[in-house]
Design brief:
Helices cover about 15% and strands about 40% of the residues. The chain is mainly beta and about 120 residues long. It has a single domain, classed as Homing Intron 3 (I-Ppo) Encoded Endonuclease, Chain A. The protein has a four-stranded antiparallel β-sheet. It has a two-stranded antiparallel sheet with strand order 1-2. A hairpin with a 2-residue loop joins strand 7 and strand 8. It is globular and about 45 Å long.
């Protein structure tokens, strides 16, 4: 356990705020949930001694902790479609580009080895 004023390691902090759903296997985030339904967690970023606090999406922190760093231009998508799930097995990287067309905003997602096109919000 971290001393008062110290930050616990990320795996311990993530574990404190999840409930595992036995039916789906989702790791449901019980910490702060934003207005869009995504879990949020405060993390410290930057070099030691000059770290600043940042509010990050919990599923992105989980993916970076347990799978790999998230490259620029990529997002972390929920395969299970549960926004407050942080189970790394339910998350995947998606490359995204925004396209404006006559029918509104289209998002082109490219998963590793697979392309899917859909309208924004569907």
């Amino acid at each position: 356990m971290a001393k008062l004023g110290e930050t616990q390691p990320i795996p311990e902090r993530l574990a404190r705020f999840i409930t595992v759903c036995p039916d789906s296997g989702c790791w449901l985030w019980n910490g702060y949930i934003d207005k869009d339904g995504y879990g949020r967690i405060d993390i410290r970023v930057g070099p030691k001694g000059k770290r600043t606090k940042k509010c990050a999406l919990a599923h992105r922190v989980s993916f970076a902790q347990y799978v790999k760093n998230i490259p620029d231009g990529y997002d972390v998508d929920h395969k299970c479609k549960v926004r407050n799930c942080i189970n790394p097995d339910h998350l995947q990287l998606r490359y995204y580009k925004f396209h404006r067309g006559t029918s509104g905003v289209l998002i082109q997602y490219q998963s590793i080895g697979k392309k899917v096109k859909r309208k924004n919000g569907e």
